Amino acid sequence: MLVLALITLGSHGNLSAPTWDDVRPIVARHCAACHQAGGEAPFRLDRASDLAARRTFSAAVVRAGLMPPWLLGPGSVPIHGRGPLSDADRDLLLAWLDAGAPHAADAAPAVPAETPPTDADVITLPLQAGYDIPAESEVTIHSHVHDVRTFALPLVNDEPMLVRALRWRSPLVNAVHSVAISADPTGQSDRADALEDDPGYQMSGDVGARPAGTLGVLGVGARELNLPEGFAFEIPPGSSIVSQVSYRPTGRELPLLGEVELDAAHPEEAVRILDTFGVMKPWLKLAAGERRNENATMVLPMAIDVVAMSPRGDHYLRSMRLTATPPGGEPRLLLNFPDWDMHWRETHVLEQPLRLPAGTRFDLEVNVDNTDDNPRNLNYPAEDIVLGRFTGVDGVLIHAAAVENHEDYRDWVRSLLR
Ligand code: HEC
Question: Do 84 and 73 meet the contact criterion of CB atoms below 8 Å apart?
Answer without folding.
Answer: yes
